[in-house]
Structure formats: C-alpha cells, structure tokens
C-alpha cells in the first residue's frame, strides 16, 4: 500500500474486527488487530495482509490446495493470493479457508 505508516507511530491498541463489524464501524488504524480465520483467532501487527499470507498464517502450508474468503458486510468474497486485504476497510469481519476441488487444483 502506498501510504504505509510505521507501526511505532500508531496507537498502542488492539482492534477486534468482529467487534468493529458488530458495532457497524471500521477498525481504527492501530498497532494490533484480532482477526479470525476459520474458528481460530489471531493477533497480527500489520494493517493488511495478502491472501497468501492469510493462508500461511492459518497453517495452510500447501497454499495451492486452498482458497481463502473474507466475510465483508455479510457477503463472502474470495481473496486472491496476491490481493491485499486491509483490516481498516469498513465491513471486514472474518476469513474462511476452503480446500480446492481436485478439478480446480489441476487447472
């Protein structure tokens, strides 16, 4: 992202994306975010991650066999491996991984 801010300059706070979504507000730009991937919660120290990074963070070692989706304003949206997801985007709630079908992996 073009206007990357140093982590040290950000407020020393934690924003929980699910709480922000339930409260109907965007997450503030802070040092830490609690995100949920599948049923696990993680605390990250960045304001955005790529689909590849999210899959790796969730322990999906063979990323060629997985897809990741974000729940955004109640809708599931696929996240590409190189696509960046900003945790400060209004409506970002959580993430879900799904295995690729065998036919999808062979394309």
List key phrases describing it.
107 residues; alpha+beta; Ubiquitin-like (UB roll); 3-stranded mixed β-sheet; 3 helices; 16% helix
Task: Summarize it.
The protein is an alpha+beta fold. It has helices at residues 17-22, 51-57, 102-105; strands at 14-16, 32-37, 40-44, 48-50, 66-72, 75-79, 84-86, 92-99.
CATH homologous superfamily heading = Phosphatidylinositol 3-kinase Catalytic Subunit, Chain A, domain 1
Question: Kindly, what is the distance between the CA atoms of the first and last residues, rounded to a whole number of angstroms?
Answer: 30 Å
Uncertain runs: 1-5
Q: Could you estimate the helical fraction of the residues in percent?
A: 10-25%
* Sheet with most strands: 3 strands, mixed
How many domains, in number, for the residues? 1
- In CATH, the architecture is Roll
CATH fold category name: Ubiquitin-like (UB roll)
Beta percentage is: 35-45%
**Strand ordering within the main sheet:** 1-2-3
Mean pLDDT, to the nearest integer, reads 88
Notes on the structure:
- The protein has one domain: Phosphatidylinositol 3-kinase Catalytic Subunit, Chain A, domain 1 (Ubiquitin-like (UB roll), Roll).
- The longest helix is centred in the middle third of the chain and has 7 residues, at 51-57.
- Residues 1-5 have low confidence and may be disordered.
- The protein has 3 helices and 8 strands; from the N terminus they run E-H-E-E-E-H-E-E-E-E-H.
- It has a 3-stranded mixed beta sheet with strand order 1-2-3.
- The chain is α+β, with helices and mostly antiparallel strands and 107 residues long.
């Amino acid at each position: 992202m073009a206007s990357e801010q140093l982590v040290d300059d950000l407020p020393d706070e934690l924003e929980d994306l699910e709480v922000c979504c339930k409260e109907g507000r965007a997450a503030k730009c802070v040092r830490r975010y609690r995100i949920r991937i599948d049923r696990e919660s993680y605390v990250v120290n960045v304001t955005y991650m790529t689909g590849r990074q999210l899959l790796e963070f969730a322990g999906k070692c063979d990323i060629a066999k997985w897809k990741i989706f974000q729940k955004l304003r109640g809708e599931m949206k696929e996240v590409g491996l190189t696509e960046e997801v900003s945790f400060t985007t209004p409506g970002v709630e959580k993430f879900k991984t799904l295995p690729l079908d065998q036919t999808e992996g062979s394309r």
